[in-house]
């Protein structure tokens, strides 16, 4: 798990993102069992209360469900993957746009550069 | 030990400690929540050990009020507190197993099965003589002496000082896996922040006997926009 303690993003929230990324990449699938929060704390060497908060957040977002006596699972929902992918794609686009704005590049120029890149990538 | 209804394991109010001419602690106000791992950070001489000893009930404040689990700490608190001093308090002529057996006699809450399990995970050989252990291995053994006890409060004074990185990593892993977040509280002092940072709920930065910063690790990181390790640089340089 990649955690950045210099990031303004809280650690629990970074942990939720890591699970989403693993889902988007296919390393985790709906219905998969994930470690208990205590196990996860040991694996990632992170404070158990922080991990518990991440687990609560995942449950709240509908990413996981806890079955009594069985553990925590990625929710078996066909729409889940589509939803996560689109959420992450939008976040990536937002970040890209912010960085371009930060560099003082006009929207038209950003669009031109993006098109050129996408086009070249397709050719290459 | 009574902890019901009180969200705080430790409460310090306007604490001052003076040793003859030296002011060791000045106007300390702290509330440590039950069920958290708290980092007590600061350079040498900032008052970390004095504060630890005071919470352990080994020294008394010159003025101010201190409550540990709702009562003023004194020597009787030993029953409820596992306090690991920075200095080495174990005998060289004993073996590892003898040391643990010797210590088990002092505490009615000693859990021999837990001590045995920890010896395994921390890779210690019971037959080894204490005097032949490396500093890192002694530190691991000291940790066992704290976690083998069933107590609501664990005080670890500089558990990482002068210890090799592999031992540090093992100690951190054990603290996280042994910590009972529902009922236990751990206060850990250190001046090596980078590795211990992920462990902490709340953090205290001490500077020349005063509390310079005290907040949750998450709030501190978001306020300063960087890791505790980098906050350290800002606070102490």
UniProtKB/TrEMBL annotation, chain A:
Database matches in SMART domains: HTH_GNTR
Signal peptide span: none
GO molecular function: DNA binding; DNA-binding transcription factor activity
Record-linked InterPro entries: Tscrpt_reg_HTH_GntR, WH-like_DNA-bd_sf, WH_DNA-bd_sf
Ranges of residues in domain HTH gntR-type: 9-77
UniProt entry keywords in alphabetical sequence: DNA-binding, Transcription, Transcription regulation
Superkingdom assignment: Bacteria
Organism: Paenibacillus phyllosphaerae
A Pfam family the protein falls into: GntR
UniProt-annotated stretches for the region Disordered: 27-47
Name of the protein this chain belongs to: GntR family transcriptional regulator
From TrEMBL, chain B:
InterPro entries per UniProt: AAA+_ATPase, ABC_transporter-like_ATP-bd, ABC_transporter-like_CS, P-loop_NTPase
A GO molecular function held by the record: ATP hydrolysis activity
Family matches, as PROSITE patterns: ABC_TRANSPORTER_1, ABC_TRANSPORTER_2
Keywords: ATP-binding, Nucleotide-binding
Domain spans labelled ABC transporter: 10-233
Protein name, entry field: ABC-2 type transport system ATP-binding protein
Species for this entry: Paenibacillus phyllosphaerae
């Amino acid at each position: 798990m990649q955690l950045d303690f210099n990031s303004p993003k809280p650690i629990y929230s970074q942990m939720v993102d890591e699970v989403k990324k693993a889902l988007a990449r296919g390393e985790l699938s709906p219905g998969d069992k994930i470690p208990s929060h205590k196990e996860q704390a040991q694996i990632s060497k992170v404070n158990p209360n922080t991990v518990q908060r991440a687990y609560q957040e995942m449950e709240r977002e509908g990413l996981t469900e806890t079955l009594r006596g069985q553990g925590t699972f990625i929710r078996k929902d066909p729409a889940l993957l589509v939803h996560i992918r689109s959420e992450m794609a939008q976040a990536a686009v937002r970040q890209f746009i912010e960085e371009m704005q930060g560099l003082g590049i006009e929207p038209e120029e950003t669009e031109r550069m993006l098109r050129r890149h996408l086009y070249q990538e397709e050719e290459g | 030990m009574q902890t019901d209804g009180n969200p705080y394991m430790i409460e310090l109010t306007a604490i001052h400690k003076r040793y003859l001419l030296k002011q060791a602690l000045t106007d300390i106000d702290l509330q440590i929540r039950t069920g958290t791992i708290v980092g007590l950070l600061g350079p040498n001489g900032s008052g970390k050990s004095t504060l630890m000893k005071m919470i352990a009930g080994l020294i008394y404040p010159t003025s101010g009020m201190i409550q540990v689990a709702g009562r003023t700490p004194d020597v009787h608190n030993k029953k409820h507190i596992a306090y690991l001093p920075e200095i080495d308090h174990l005998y060289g002529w004993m073996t590892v197993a003898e040391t643990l057996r010797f210590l088990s006699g002092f505490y009615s809450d000693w859990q021999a099965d837990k001590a045995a399990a920890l010896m395994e995970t921390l890779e210690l050989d019971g037959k080894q003589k204490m005097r032949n252990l490396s500093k890192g291995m002694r530190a691991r053994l000291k940790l066992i002496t704290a976690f083998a006890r069933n107590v609501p409060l664990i005080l670890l004074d500089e558990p990482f000082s002068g210890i090799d990185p592999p031992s540090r990593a093992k100690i951190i892993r054990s603290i996280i896996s042994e910590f009972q977040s529902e009922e236990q509280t751990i206060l850990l002092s250190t001046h090596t922040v980078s590795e211990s940072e992920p462990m902490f709920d709340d953090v205290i930065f001490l500077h020349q006997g005063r509390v310079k910063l005290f907040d949750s690790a998450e709030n501190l990181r978001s306020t300063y926009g960087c890791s505790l390790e980098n906050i350290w640089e800002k606070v102490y340089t």
